[in-house]
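Exercise 7.
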Amino acid sequence: MIRHQGEWFRDLDHDGQVSPYEDWRLPVEVRARDLLGRMTPAEKVGLMLHGTLPASGPFGMLGYGPAYDLAAAERLILGAGVTCAITRLALPPAAFAAQNNALQTLAARGRLGIPLTISTDPRHHFKSTAGASQGAVGFSQWPETLGLAAIDDVDLVRRFGEIVRQEYRAVGITMALSPQADLATSPMWPRIDGTFGEDPVRVRAMVGAYVEGLQGGRSGLTPTGVAAVVKHWVGYGASEDGFDGHNHYGRYSAFPGGAFDAHVDAFRDALAFRVSGVMPTYNILRCVTVDGQRVEQVGAGFSRRLLTDLLRGTHRFDGVILSDWAISKDCNTACRTGQPPQRPADIAMSWGVEDLPAVERIALGVNAGLDQFGGENDPSLLLQALREGRISQARIDQSVLRILKQKFELGLFEHPFVDADEAARIVGSPPFRTAGEQAQRQSLVRLKLGPGPALRPGDRVLLRGLPDGTLVGRGVTVVSDPAQATVALVRLSAPFQHLHPTYFFGSRQHEGDLDFKPEDPDLMALKALPPGLRLIVVAHLDRPAVLTEIEALATDLVLDFGASDAAILDVLTGQSICRGRTPFSLPRSMDHVRRRRWDRPGDDRDPLHPMGYSAS
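Solution. The predicted structure, written as tokens, is:
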């Protein structure tokens, strides 16, 4: 620290003087331009990489482990100059804060002392999916964003964003790779549960409210905020045949219904509130034009039409465009075909430019409008593209300035460290947990109602999909003999198929048909119950399942979009009231699903239930 003119300043460049970029009294623009002028080309391109923070253990290369690998982190931060990176650690709050402080200590040793921007995928929900989300370890736990959409309360979503902001900042996370503004119009798509549903008006409002709460206001990033990265620009939810763009076979979005503008509209509030970052989709958009010009048949991260013309031009976005992970990588045979089975080392999503030399691929992305490459730790390709004149120095400076301004806006140059004890107090605090648990209860949807409470005092309950202990103290008895039961309580999940078991992501995603096949164990169990037995079904939906047969069998049918057993039982026993409504339409059959156009909201003309339905 340096004392100058009666004030204290951090001596980031270790020269004993207060440089303009170290002077917190100066405007962000002035500080960022001063720092830009001091950086070498190697330092600049390092800033254009958004890496993965390495962890110890067998999955450390993917960021998963019990702690950071500090030796590898030093090579990344001080060696490669990467000062923006995702964390995938899942630790108790105090330990997590201490680990992030250790990384900031490393960054402070750098020539210019540029602090780390630490990002994360969503951490406040139930589902944990490789490359998309993590479970709520230590953090307050909320329904999936589909559940928030089911509640349909913009103020609640804003409050959720405020709580996420406080919990993230407490552990040293300053960037959220969320929210998804994708419209859930392709009903078999595996990433629907991360969206706010299929209504463009609702999605637009909720995405905007989340950005407002997360960043600290509607006018852009604040020093106590978290930089939001809205995704995936644009049309990811119109995935062709419902397959996902993490996989070569799922690399296309289709717009047979001509609804591209609806997918763009979902981003409008986030952009109006000056969201800090935008992440392009992996997908190639079929048959889309921008200002009369056909969108290039490449992933959106390589499309000048989508990034420069539409996003920066038409919508005047001036923040950071961060690519999704691994678009700069080479797509080998396993990446394209799943044979031999795809391993982490085979992961690449360079759709439409798979056959370009890597340096050309990198240059194409930057010249299209990218500022950072997600999941990239090696600056050599960017340096080569700069040396060979494939990217101009002015274009590099443009991106680096945007990234530096974001770091200054976050207050990282003054406050990179966090208090581990304070993290333990704030993260998962009783008020935050209570808010999340209340949202879980509210998000449940009563799709079918029987007479009176679903679970009644004195009931003898036959359970499936719930542990016996969940009913202790509820005034009911658990039985194992169907003949002795007065009611059956079954918790099940939306069906899916394992269609691509040799692909890294395809093997982990819920793909394929949405109906319960005759051999489905849950459906068979329901049909085998004694006639006349009351039947309560709780269905967890991560996609809009075909529930026609289930609804016909059930006395009570409740939809769950991320809720604990306790939350569900509180609603079933009448101790709590739910207020959820379906965030998408529910198809009557797979024939109806196949007749839908992948891009058009509300395109099911004869749904089992329309979007916004509730029986209560």
